[in-house]
Design a protein that fits this description.
The chain has 461 residues and is of the alpha/beta class. Helices cover 29% and strands 27% of the residues. It contains twelve helices and 19 strands. The two termini are 30 Å apart.
Length: 461
Amino acid sequence: MITTLVLPGSLADEVATASRNPLECAAVLLARRVDTGAEVRLLGRSLHWVPQAAYCEQSSHHMLIRSEGYVGALGAAEKDGAVPIWFHTHPGQEGVPLPSPHDRQVDREIGDLFQLRSGSGVYATLIASPRGESFVFSGEVTPEDGETAPIDRVWTVGDRWRLLPSFASQVATPDAIFDRNVRAFGPDIQSVLGDIRVAIVGAGGTGSAVAEQLVRLGVRHLLLIDNDTLSASNVTRVYGSTPREVGQPKVDVLAAHLTRIAPELRCSTIQGMVTVKHVAQALRASDLVFGCTDDNAGRLVLSRLSTFLLTPVIDVGVLLSSDRRGVLTGIDGRITTLTPGAACLVCRGRVDMARAAAEMRTPEERQRLADEGYAPALGQVEPAVVAFTTAVAAAAVNELLDRLIGYGPPERPTETLLRLHDREISTNEALPRQGHYCHVAQGKWGAGDEEPFLGQLWGTA
């Protein structure tokens, strides 16, 4: 069982800043627990710092705190349905974030209190020391009726994305086949690519191009989701497909192709729609999702992930326009990056709400409403060309690499627009609308498995 602590950028910055304090300091980090079966994710909600007046002693290597410094946070954890994590620092650039004998004594003294007062039945710890712009850590989770397990990874999702292994873990040396990658961005990033859990929703022209690039870069944990089977016209765009696979599920065709490239790839597939609850729930174990679907209803679901699950989404769109004579006039691509604090696709106006509502209905209901003029007609075949879907897919993968490596401008845009017909690229940013679910004031960041899941109603399909 792997445990990942996910921190939005604001909380990750607070942890990193505290770790650079020359004096030990402490807080209670509240996190919602999501159990996916094979993994546990702790979604960071808030940090409650010990007030300065509650420190009896505080130095670079020791601290003593009165109970009033943290008891109030346990009440907040109970109210929020969160796990309280006892967080403190071991200062110094050479600091070692491993529990000392004194730390172990503190754990024994306050563990039961944390479990009982919070109502979570869990006591968890996190220790951080500074390293460069970020921090190193160790942590543990102790349920009242189970064995202590380590926090294996911390995934921070702000302007930059960082996947931090626990301090005591052994990081494997990248395989020699990635020598050219390592020369470009170093072994640490290559290790992150090998460990990151990526889901791709949509296994068509754009999704298959994203998938192949990721696997060749070194990604080794993939989830592919698509409801369709391969058609003859798909063969012109879907990577790894040939006429022999026509009629097979797209996810199976793509998975077989990717495992031929990387036999050690752990690739799971779901033939289904992300608008179905159990399919959407499968995304809970992902660190990152690429949205390569062309339906608006699916985008509505994906748009909520970065808020409710703190899961970044790179949403991709391609639009080809022609005039009445059938002459190509526009080749437009869009890469929108959704993270906590950025506007969702609805706030950006990137979802056709009327079409999304129609797509959620049964085929019979869609046709009836379309005939009556109350819903847009669906099912039209849109133009698509492999050169353009591949170009936009490459720009989407570039967004991931920049967020991990940091080679772009320090203030990263959250959307990139490609006008290939004009040979132009532009970028923009957008903030959440007041009162919308993606705004921090609504309290939905890291809501996790709170019902209704993702804050929306689900069909029975």
